[in-house]
Amino acid sequence: MSTTGQVIKCKAAVAWEPGKPLSIEDVEVAPPKVHEVRIKVVATGVCHTDWVNLYETGKGMKFRPFPLVLGHEAAGVVESVGPEVTNFSPGDKVIPLFLPQCFDCDRCRSPKTNLCKKNWENAQVGILADGTSRISCNGQQVYQFLGVSSFSQYTVLSDASLAKIRDDAPLDKVYLLGCGVSTGYGAVVNTGKVEKDSLCAVFGLGAVGLAAIMGCQIAGAKRIIGIDINPDKFEKAREFGATECVNPKEHSRNIQEVLVEMTNGGVDYAFECVGSPAVMTAALESTIDAWGMCVIVGWTETEAMNVVVEKILMGRTLTGTYFGGWKSVQEVPKLVDDYMKKKLKLDEFITHKLPLDQINKAFDLLKLGQSIRALINLWPEENNPKVA
């Protein structure tokens, strides 16, 4: 029986309140409205941003309304499209995008930025363009994280927040291009524009940091130094291209002093992939004066970074990146192509595979530093959706 135009009943991991584990619930997902697409989510990952918005909300992070379905790094298949949707059809393979690309605004028309603001304010507070969510549970509206909510077997997004990808792409791999890998890799090749034979330092060896290391290797960097307080991540970092790894806990001096000494003056490029103001400062101060560049990749909404103005005045560049600088709708399919051509690693990021009902274990593994990315399979036993 066709589900087009019908409310679909399915499973989702719902955050009922901040700081509490997710609860697997039966939810109802309404049909898409104008310029919206409903997708079946096949694979999703648990990102650090999901964790902080569950466990750090109200502790320096922006407050987002609850109940909430988290998740923003995913891949799926179009189930149905709403009125005025012309770029998608049922059966298309897609990657949801927390950063849209409308092609119409000044920012989309500019080559200088990827920061489209289509439906931006609404997405930050968990609603779609009309001011409501398409997900409900027991008659109560459930908010959609960043306008995505991939911890649900079905979800509805704006048609400006989806990238259509090739039919032969494995969804249980390319979902990683919805956030972490694209962000870290793009920070190097788009924002930093790392040059051959450069000296690079990557702070934080999670998925974003490993993707940055991969980008540095592809760019031809001569030395790639991975920095993390968890030495268990060093072997994986070397697999992605790190030439050496440093644990700040093994040194009595600040890590930036150690790096400056190791590189005879500082690195050419530093990438902060943690989201910590203290680490941001260390990354900036690890760069060489005259031409050093520090790219802030890690997300934080907490206290401002304490930048020493002198460090900037002496010729360094401090900049940030969001989603790696990629024009999302347009360029994510190209990243999928690069993976299919074996130009990008994705499989190596996936350290665990779990069904949706074990999603809280994925959060625990991430917090304990025991996983890079856990693949959440939303359909461990294929079931047909129920029409409400």
From TrEMBL:
Q: Which GO terms describe its cellular component?
A: cytosol
Concerning Pfam families, the annotation shows: ADH_N, ADH_zinc_N
Record key words, sorted: Metal-binding, NAD, Oxidoreductase, Zinc
Q: Residue ranges of the Enoyl reductase (ER) domain?
A: 19-376
What InterPro entries does the entry give? ADH-like_C, ADH-like_N, ADH_Zn_CS, ER, GroES-like_sf, NAD(P)-bd_dom_sf
Q: Which Gene3D superfamilies would you find in this protein's record?
A: Medium-chain alcohol dehydrogenases, catalytic domain (3.90.180.10), NAD(P)-binding Rossmann-like Domain (3.40.50.720)
Q: Which residues form the signal peptide?
A: none
Gene Ontology terms for molecular function: alcohol dehydrogenase (NAD+) activity; S-(hydroxymethyl)glutathione dehydrogenase [NAD(P)+] activity; zinc ion binding
Tell me the cofactors it needs. Zn(2+)
Biological process terms from the Gene Ontology for this record are: formaldehyde catabolic process
Please give the function described in this protein's UniProt entry.
Answer: Alcohol dehydrogenase. Catalyzes the NAD-dependent oxidation of primary alcohols to the corresponding aldehydes. Oxidizes secondary alcohols to the corresponding ketones.
Q: Which family does it belong to?
A: Belongs to the zinc-containing alcohol dehydrogenase family. Class-V subfamily.
Official protein name in the record: Alcohol dehydrogenase 6
